[in-house]
Amino acid sequence: MEINLQNIELIGNYLLYRFRKQKYILAAIKGLRNGIVYGVRIRAPHALVMVFLFGSGSFLQKIRSILTLTKTHAFNLGRFVFAYKLMLGLMEKLAGEYKTWYPFIAAFTVGYFVWGENNGVNTQINLYLLSRILYGLVKLAVEKQIIREPNGPVFPWFAAIIWGTVLWMFENHSHVLQSSLQTSMKYLYHDSNVWTDIRNFILRNE
Questions:
Q1: C-alpha closest to that of 106 among 81, 128, 126
Q2: 111: left (phi over 0), alpha (psi -120 to 50) or beta
Q3: The dihedral of CA 150, 153, 159, 161: what is its sign?
Q4: Of the residues 132, 155, 163, 165, which has the fewest C-beta atoms closer than 10 A?
């Protein structure tokens, strides 16, 4: 077994050396690996907690749900990283230089096909990125002096607007919110209105 592992390692190292000039292809393969690993690390614990806390069905159904969510997240992320890095490398190789707009074109194209399906995992990831993008764009606009840097603290107002808006939407138009957010907010803000005795007041929720 030890000899076989050594042989495999030698072959692997030879292949890395043999294709060293096609670094963008090797980087895409490594990106596929890292995307899958990162997707599993991120999604599996999250799915485990959410499915067992708020999900319905038997134990086996919950396990299947966790595995499905993890697989979807991990393989989508792996496919995206692989295709994005491959396309980015090809664009740079064909043009003979790197341009700052290449990442947008590569990610735009690959993102359409990988993250474009309207399902729970893709929706959550796209919304996660949207919030970070908006926050980053504001900071970039200040950095580039497109807008003036505020004199006073902004984050408290940012938090106030976010929480005021989401609770207004939840209380009045909850159907437009993502289902997982509806479930979480119902548990926090509506289920806390209901109890019949001390047991379901403190020990459990009904």
A1: 81
A2: alpha
A3: negative
A4: 155
